[in-house]
Design a protein that fits this description.
seven-stranded mixed beta sheet, single chain
Length: about 190
């Protein structure tokens, strides 16, 4: 109940600040767990995606964000849990599998951190590992415009259209290489920007 209340509050605030278009909702499974893999341009992305998706989800966010009281409160009640960046955070990985096993979709950012518009970050193989070990569908999603609403390094919000595009589910074989899968997923994500 708290999740949907916070989600409604965040969605209401977003509607005041900027317009948002969502495409491809029909590609989101109506039930069961899945992995939602997205590009990452702005600190707004972890809040825009739960608002745009009709399913309740969980997602990882860097642990420093939880140290800010209001933002930490919002993120926690939108289903976020902390991850230590640049390390193999076993606790976070276990939490991901726990939630997937419980039927909860999980949002991850394969690039690991925000990427500038003209420069893609190196893709981490973790999304490939999750896809293979969970044997669940991966839904690619491309978010556009959040970096215009809240530019990297800025604390001011600007009015700009945000577009969220969900792609068709991707499935992978157990024997496929984690890094190659991660690259395939990222390629598919960026193909949705067309």
């Amino acid at each position: 109940m708290v999740y949907w209340t916070i989600r409604f509050f965040v969605a209401f605030c977003f509607r005041i600040i900027f317009p948002m278009q969502v495409r491809g909702k029909e590609n989101i499974p109506k039930e069961g767990p899945f992995i939602l893999a997205s590009n990452h341009r702005s600190y707004l992305d972890p809040m825009v995606l739960p608002v745009s998706c009709p399913r309740k989800m969980g997602f990882v966010a860097k642990e420093q964000l939880f140290q800010k009281f209001f933002l930490g409160f919002i993120l926690k009640h939108l289903g976020a849990f902390p991850i230590r960046r640049n390390t193999s955070d076993i606790r976070a990985i276990k939490e991901i599998f726990k939630r997937l096993k419980a039927g909860c979709p999980i949002l991850i950012f394969p690039e690991g951190t925000r990427a500038a518009k003209a420069k893609k970050q190196e893709v981490q193989s973790g999304v490939g590992m999750l896809a293979v070990r969970s044997r669940l569908p991966v839904i690619p999603v491309f978010v556009q415009g959040t970096d215009k609403v809240l530019a990297p390094g800025s604390k001011r919000l600007k009015r700009h259209l945000v577009t969220v595009t969900y792609g068709e589910p991707l499935f992978f074989q157990k024997k496929e290489d984690y890094s190659q899968i991660a690259q395939q997923i990222m390629k598919k994500i960026y193909s949705l920007s067309a």
